[in-house]
Amino acid sequence: MNLNTLAWRNLWRHKRRTLITASSIAFGVLLAVTFTGAGDYFYTRMIDAGANMGMGHITVAAPDYNRAPSSKKYLHQAGKLRQQVINIEEVADVVARIHGQAMFASARTSIGGMFIAIDPKQEHADNNLFIKAMVSGEMLSSASEKDIVLGVDLARKLKVDLGKKVVYTTTDNNGDIVSAIARVSGLFQTGSSEIDGAMAILPLNTVQKVLGYQQDEVSVLAVTLHDQRSSHQMRDTLQNMAEFEAVEVLNWQQTQPDLAGMIAVDKSSNYISQLLIALLVAAGILNTMLMSVLERGREFGVMMAVGMSPRNLFLLVMLESFWLAVAGLIIGIVVTTPWYLFMSQTGIDLSEYYGEGFSFGGVLLDSVFKIRLFKESIMAILIGLFGLALLSGAYPAWRAGQIPPVESLKTI
Questions:
Q1: What is the gyration radius of the CA atoms in the chain, in angstroms?
Q2: Which of 166, 173, 158 lies closest to 219 in space, CA to CA?
């Protein structure tokens, strides 16, 4: 009988204990999938939402624009640069935008805030979160040169509604103060008070005229990717292209450091939680294997007395740990698969507690709790738990190989 067969049979000599330990591994799989899947889903949603609020996963801008934004710093030949980027396979979309600060005034009051000028032909719900957040009126159309879309809180502060006039004042490309009049065509609500109380959306062609820009001059090109995880690689790719030597190329971690910091902190706490779960699973496996070794002292003594080497005895116990890990992972996959399918497709609606959405780091998220796993996360969970199970069996296996045959035989 080979060691594999012997190890498998030994494992089921105490079925109840084996099933309990395998179930603990399966429970670890379930918790790891839930924690990791929640992180993969929500981090991606936050990053994508932040990108769709203005700067993209990758931002192409004039040198030093991100450190000190100014209407004096802008891109030339934005259309040519856009065509260079949009043909890259990993890129989902590229939109030209103008960002700036302005004073918004109505007949009753004035409020300081920010604006984003967009080209309605380039913008849609997949690359512009504000389109999804519309609650009244409509987003800018291609023919709307005098329209403005306001956050609901900004409109409330200005005491204006749809159809009312708003004057916005900013500085042009020479640093001179300029003003223009717009009529409120729509209102949006992201759920973030900082955004809803200070942001306005304006037509790109109108703002270009107000700021003194040419038709092909904008503040930034916002690049959205199919997969936000490739932002580092894409930034490096663009930086190495000759067309982008005279501009600044940044990824979302650089343009949104607050969001990147929050995600990093949250990931750390998530890792700590998973480490504690892993240690509990490892303790269960170690306890099971050590009990098995201590109970079989006389058996191991006889096996070594008839010729089994300490090395083979160590290998036997390690194979038992191996098959225990395999059984636990199989049970875990069977139990976790229906849970994962439900949580990835349907999720749990938490709107009763959070309303229609909530913000994290100034970014709006929906209130449906879902999970999603990247391929590398699945491999990390399976390899991590499997390796942990084997590692937990190493000490009991070593202990088995150290049992003196003569001393064991005295108790027979």
A1: 31
A2: 173
Q: Please state, in angstroms and rounded to a whole number, the distance separating the CA atoms of residues 355 and 350.
A: 8
Q: Can you read off the two tokens belonging to residue 322?
A: 């191996």
Mean pLDDT on 225-230: 92
The CA-to-CA distance between both ends of the chain, in Å, stands at: 24
* Burial environment of residue 184 by CB neighbours within 10 A (0 to 12, 13 to 18, 19 or more): buried
The pLDDT of 166-173, averaged and rounded, is 94
- Say yes or no to pLDDT of 304 above 80: no
Cβ contacts of 237 within 8 Å, gap of 6 or more: 88
What is the phi/psi pair of residue 294, to 5°? -65, -35
Q: Which amino acid is at 212?
A: G
Residue with tokens 């935008």: 97
175 neighbors 72 (Cβ within 8 angstroms): yes
Burial 54-91 (b: 16+ CB within 10 A, else e): bbbbbbbbbeebbeebebebbbeebeebbebbeeeeeb
Q: Within 13 Å and on the Cβ side, how many CA atoms surround 260?
A: 12
Read off the DSSP letter of residue 54: I
Report which of 229, 249, 227, 224 is spatially closest to residue 238, judged by C-alpha positions.
249
pLDDT of residue 214: 92
Two tokens, residue 306: 């008839």
Give the CA distances from residue 1 to residues 5, 289, 306, 365, in Å, rounded to whole numbers and listed in that order. 7, 22, 15, 59
Q: Is the dihedral of CA 45, 113, 141, 120 positive or negative?
A: negative
Going by DSSP bridges, is the β-strand pair 363-366/357-360 parallel, antiparallel, or unpaired?
antiparallel
Name which of 180, 186, 211 is nearest 200 in CA terms.
186
List pLDDT tens digits, range 42-53.
888 889 888 888
> What is the pTM for the complete model shown?
0.81
Q: What's at 377, amino acid-wise? A: S
108 by Cβ neighbours in 10 Å (0-12 / 13-18 / 19+) ranks as: exposed
Q: CA 53 to CA 256: how far, in whole Å?
A: 11
* More confident site: 279 or 162: 162
Enumerate residues 6+ apart whose C-beta is below 8 A from 307: none
Query: Looking at residue 65, what DSSP letter applies?
Result: T
Residue 279 has pLDDT above 90, yes or no: no
How does residue 405 score in pLDDT terms, banded at 50, 70 and 90? low
What is the residue-averaged pLDDT of the chain? 86
Residue 383, Cβ neighbours under 10 Å: how many? Answer: 10
